[in-house]
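ENTRY TYPE: paired fold submission
RECORD: A
CONTENT: sequence, then structure tokens
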Amino acid sequence: MNRLKSYVRRTILQSARDYAGGKRRTADSTRAAFTDAMRGTDSGWWADLIYTAPMLDMAHSYRRDIAMAFAEYRDATGDRYTFRDSSTGTEIGADEIMSALLRGPFDFEDYRGMNGDDADATLIGLRFAVEWYAGETAHDICPDI
């Protein structure tokens, strides 16, 4: 298991224990934690994925695991991932995201400046990978979701 998938699993299972109100998780608390975690990384449930600067650090730290998520997605679906921003009509493909990950690391000044598109692409990659691994982990632990 890669480090990002381990992070996702650990975060969700810790929340399941918190949902149960103690040291042990229950089937219901585990299901609830996975259900909430899979609602997306922009929902606020993922506390580590709220602020841009720490996310940029995470994206760089987990860049190989993010690339692995894109490969797993392609193998599972037969399609290459493409992010589509409905408000602007912008499309960013997995290749562009992985290329940006290789050009990093980016900091908040990059995000707000000349490298904003590349920095934003790395954040899209991180969000995708966390959501992908949350779904994959849910399938392993809570197949009824």
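RECORD: B
CONTENT: sequence, then structure tokens
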Amino acid sequence: MGYNPIQDFLFQSMMYDVNLSNKRKFVDIQSAIVIILQNILDNECDIIHLDLEIRGNKNNVKVIGKNIISALWLSGIFPKNVNDTLKRNEYKIDNIIFKYDSNNHKLTYITIINE
């Protein structure tokens, strides 16, 4: 708790018995995430890149970022240069490189070991 406001919101929603997989609740969930992002992002216009999907049932939910920016945001990472990150489909921070596979919507990372 406290490191990723989007994850915190989703977790607390589940704690209050909100069924995140309910398709009728998707717009409300997405709207809440937009409000969270408006308070975090340097450039509110970047919100247009929010693209996510929620799969599962009440007891087992998977939230999928459908582009690298959404996947990073859902992971609690908020890149400054959104357009460059989208073009390259990767993002480097400190000694970690995140890569996004558009085919299977998976975000992976590798740790760079400095020798």
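NOTES ON RECORD B: The helical segments are 5-15, 26-38, 68-74, 82-88. Residues 5-111 form one domain.
STATUS: closed
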